[in-house]
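In response to the reviewer comment on reproducibility (Comment 2.3), we provide here a single inverse folding case reported in full, input and output, so that an independent group could reproduce the run without further information from us. The structure tokens appear first.
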């Protein structure tokens, strides 16, 4: 049975929350996933730790922010095989690339996965919406 777009988005959110808790040591306060054609966008709120907040507000703010972002990027690169495997098992499509950014000011983190193809559920939705509505006999 093919999963719906909403089911895929919910499963990805759950997988990302689990990853953040298990691998990063802290889960986000809020997570929302959007499946848009061949892209998966995961938006998380409340991911900055207290230690990172102190580092970002230290005397040399730019250096602190750069250090936090650099550390987070290295961590996500190390976890890339796990994340790509999770996304592939949920969407049924391989991951072409992964992009991540983090705002130390707002505590928001965005992860974008580009897929090798549009997931089947979206292809089916597109085909269904392209067909003309049924006509009633006059």
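Designed residues, in position order:
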């Amino acid at each position: 049975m093919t999963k719906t777009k909403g089911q895929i988005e919910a499963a990805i959110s759950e997988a990302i929350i689990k990853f953040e808790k298990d691998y990063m040591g802290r889960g986000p306060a809020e997570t929302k996933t959007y499946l848009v054609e061949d892209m998966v966008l995961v938006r998380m709120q409340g991911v900055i730790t207290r230690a990172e907040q102190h580092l970002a507000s230290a005397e040399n703010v730019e250096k602190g922010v750069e250090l936090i972002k650099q550390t987070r990027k290295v961590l996500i690169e190390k976890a890339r095989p796990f994340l790509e495997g999770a996304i592939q098992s949920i969407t049924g499509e391989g991951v072409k690339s992964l992009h991540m950014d983090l705002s130390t000011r707002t505590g928001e983190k965005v992860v974008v996965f580009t897929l090798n193809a549009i997931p089947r559920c979206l292809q089916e939705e597109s085909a269904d919406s392209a067909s003309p509505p049924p006509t009633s006999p006059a």
